[in-house]
Amino acid sequence: MAAENNATRDIPLWIVAILILAGGIVGYGYLEGQVLDLVRIVVLLAAAGLALFVASRTSKGGEFFSYVREVDVERRKVVWPTRQETLQTTLIVLVITVIVGIILFAMDTLFGWIVRRLIGLGGEL
Known about the structure:
Layout: H1 2-30, H2 37-56, H3 59-77, H4 83-119
Helix pairs in contact: 1-2
């Protein structure tokens, strides 16, 4: 019942957010050729920011921004590899890829030679 009540109270906020964003988009198109492109972009970004702010005041918007904050906290906990570690692992991957490629080429050549011998198409490599 409480969730249903929140959803009902959020409907006007969602409508306002959508109208603000639509107004920014319409304004961006309407101002074409009348003002600098930079001004049009600033107006569009301001409308988008205001629409996000209004949407964040809804229950779902609040949950979303809370989730984004939690994701940022977890992102800060990540230990990123150093430049040297990244270079070393990249080189290892490249070397292993070349080695596996050579092994697969050799196996393909050998099996092709065996199959050609079995079906009688010659024995030369």
